[in-house]
Design goal:
- By secondary structure, this protein is of the alpha+beta class.
- The protein has a single domain, classed as Alpha-Beta Plaits, CATH 3.30.70.270.
- The chain is built from eight helices and five strands; from the N terminus they run H-H-H-H-E-H-H-E-E-H-E-H-E.
- The protein has helices at 3-23, 26-29, 39-55, 58-65, 80-87, 89-105, 130-145, 171-187, and strands spanning 70-77, 112-117, 120-126, 158-164, 193-195.
- Helix 1 runs antiparallel to helix 3 (39-55) and helix 5 (80-87) packs across helix 6.
- The longest helix is centred in the N-terminal third of the chain and has 21 residues, at 3-23.
- It is globular.
- The chain starts with a helix and ends with a strand.
- The structure holds 3'-deoxy-guanosine-5'-triphosphate and magnesium ion (MG) (2 copies).
- One magnesium ion (MG) binds at residues 76, 118-120.
């Protein structure tokens, strides 16, 4: 297959995926509590971008679709159980919603934020390399640390694992590596950003 055919095939695949996605029920795309995208949507969309990375050269990707890399942030609220236990589950829900909104507000057009499960969230940053993504994560970490709530005793922090397609272009592998980085962030004291280092 030549480049033009490859491009057409991918464009068709994207259009097909979009129509499939729009055909799904709203609650299959959006998480009811946070309003973020669902994990299923996130996974499908990310795999399309990673397929493009696997099949189209970096130069052509940049020229045709405007991106070379994609990076992922994996978020987990610190000691969230304690927030629930101290202030109640409803307050926990409000904290989770506010954190989700803060993450979403700091994204660019083309980025996607989803609820991975519980108090874990993920984001894809299209066009960002590892360094860009680490800077973005650090900015979000600081904004979350500064959030205030009606009850001024509530303090919330977040740990973030960061990976980039520079290291792997397999979705499952990337999420595994993001989770490892997140684990390191937790182990080294929480309220931290850790980028996946190949070494
Ligand atoms: P760590 O810093 O290690 O992440 O500690 P943690 O307490 O955040 O981690 P853990 O995984 O032990 O607890 C997560 C808690 O998040 C437990 C669960 O009850 C709570 N949780 C998960 N989903 C929701 C939700 O939708 N609403 C509320 N209020 N709590 C939730
Ligand atoms: Mg967790
Ligand atoms: Mg947690």
């Amino acid at each position: 297959m030549d480049d033009e055919q490859n491009k057409q095939k991918l464009l068709e695949r994207i259009a097909e995926l979009e129509s499939q996605v729009f055909g799904l029920e709203k609650d299959l795309i959006h998480d009811a509590l946070t309003g973020l995208k669902t994990r299923a949507f996130f996974e499908e969309e990310s795999k399309v971008y990673l397929d493009m990375i696997n099949h189209i050269s970096a130069g052509k990707r940049k020229q045709w679709f405007g991106f070379k890399n994609i990076s992922f942030l994996f978020f987990d609220i610190d000691h969230f159980k304690k927030i629930n236990d101290t202030f109640g589950h409803d307050v926990g829900d409000l904290v989770l919603k506010k954190v989700a909104q803060t993450i979403k507000q700091n994204m660019r057009v083309g980025d996607t934020v989803a609820r991975w499960g519980g108090e874990e969230m993920v984001a894809s940053l299209l066009g960002a390399d590892l360094n860009d993504a680490k800077l973005k994560a650090e900015d979000i970490r600081q904004k979350i640390e500064k959030l205030t709530f009606e009850n001024s005793e509530i303090k919330v922090t977040i740990s973030i694992g960061v990976v980039s397609s520079e290291i792997s272009s397999d979705f499952t592998d990337l999420m595994k590596k993001a989770d490892q980085s997140l684990y390191q962030a937790k182990q080294s004291g929480r309220n931290k950003v850790v980028g996946f280092d190949q070494k």
